[in-house]
UniProtKB/TrEMBL annotation:
It comes from Chryseobacterium caseinilyticum. This is Restriction endonuclease subunit S. Coiled coil: none annotated. Transmembrane segments: none annotated. It comes from the Bacteria. The keyword Hydrolase applies. InterPro entries: Restrct_endonuc_typeI_TRD_sf, Type-I_RS_S_subunit.
Amino acid sequence: MIEENKSVKNFPNSRNVPKLRFSEFINNWEIYYLKEIAEKINNKNNDNRIVTVFSNSAVQGIVLQSDFFDKSIANKNNLDGYYIVEPFDFVYNPRLSSTAEVGAMSVNKTNLIGLVSPLYTVFKIKDKNINISFLEYLFKSKVWHNYMRSIANYGAREDRMNVRSEDFYNLPLTIPNFSEQTKVSRFLSLIDSRIQTQKKIIEGLSLQKISLVKKLFENKIKFKTNNKTRNWERKKLSEISEEHLHKNPNNKYNEVFSVAKHKGVINQIEHLGRSFSAKEILHYKLVYSGDLVYTKSPTSDFPFGIIKQNRTGRIGVVSPLYCVFKPQTYALGYLLHEYFNSSVNTFNYLNPLVQKGAKNTMNINNETFLNGASILLPMNEEEQEKIYKFLLTLDEKINLERELLTQYENQKKYLLQNLFL
């Protein structure tokens, strides 16, 4: 974690300064209305000369629309009504989401001049005593949310914050002097930099693992064993595993699992936020530790369903529509999970089964699924165990780095909550 700055003190009983503050600052914070420090931008692309279109994402900020959606949504022949956004202009997107509870406010840091939808609000800071980075962090906090909710008229569309322009620019903001603004923003930028570094560490380790798994299944990497080396063999899932048909006896197990493409087998309440009654899960299938689950539920990356191993260490249940099967060894199940973790491998395995007569993924029956194409696998248990332990070490390293990332992100949330008024 970022080392605690010992010059930051608590001010729990003060109403004119935040709960956390750098000790060298003693002056009260002052209230400004947005209209006092900002200038509304009404410049439109009347001659249609600008074709760069921005999107305002609560997570990514101002980005090129073509990058955000993998294509341009706006009609390039009809951009004359779009607002022009210059570098360091603020853009407010009134659309609501889980990461933008009152809409997303972002700064254009692209160094490009672009356009945004006329549904957005654009303004620039005109007061030289306002640090733009400080104001950007303030808008990442929730201190302005209550005011926005108080002036909102949601109207027919509940996914959009509908506010009058006059009310929007009467937004009150409590701000310290420029020196304190600068120190707060620099402090938070250090945490942001560490978060980005942590994400790159995780991405690097994940790519390293993907490359190693690919080489493993291409037989370009081999693990030595005490026994005579045996070649990998092509096996059908039905030859190396057994389908589980066990139902939930007397509702003994009440943890319902979901299967997510990134998190694998996971508690469904944690994943989807839904709870289940005992009656609902009476006929659900049991899933033991090490079992693999084929969901048959399509996603954008896995159009014929996802196949993941239960690595929770717990016994739970899944929908009776799923296929549950137990490989000969836990280590072999671990390898199969890694094999099917590739959307390409999953597609190549399942696509021929669909083409053989099934109209959709739900029509791939379990027997057909388990008797699909053979997969090249190590059948020497000692080699399976060595590969499993090697991959497990990588997974544990990645999980540790993810936990560290979560700590940094939680630290940032805490600071955003307590460094502003």
